[in-house]
Amino acid sequence: MAARAKILPAQRRRPPRADLAPSDGAVRSTAAVEWPPRPNSHIVSEAISVFFIAQNRDGYWVARSADERAGGIFLMKQSALHFAKRHSPSFGCATVFLTERIELDLCNQGSQLAAFLSTVKRTVVGLVLEALQNLRNATERDTIHGCGKQATKNVNNLPRVT
Description:
With 162 residues, the protein is of the alpha/beta class.
């Protein structure tokens, strides 16, 4: 049975690891929030493995060992907990649930489907935002040059993309 530590907010700590190439399955962290350090020994004994569990920006579950040896992306919270248990000694591990969304900075050893879906989601969202921006620019251009209909002159109804 895994020991449970209290829920902690993630801490701003260090930049993402630069030694991982994009082809290795790692999801780059673009947020300023980074994984917290391992709790000190008066909270959790050094003999006990510690796993952090949180959700990433796409809503998928991420599990990562405090010693940065194992990590993965999962569709379900239970799968992330099972991963932590499977990668721990027989006597279990401490799990620390983070309240902030955080990205995996290691090679994904979890669900390949979750990693694929995360990539597809980000790609589709990027394409939709690009299409909306192009539509907005075309509408503004037509309105400025007088080519647009009266109804298209109010471009403020279109979503603003930054």
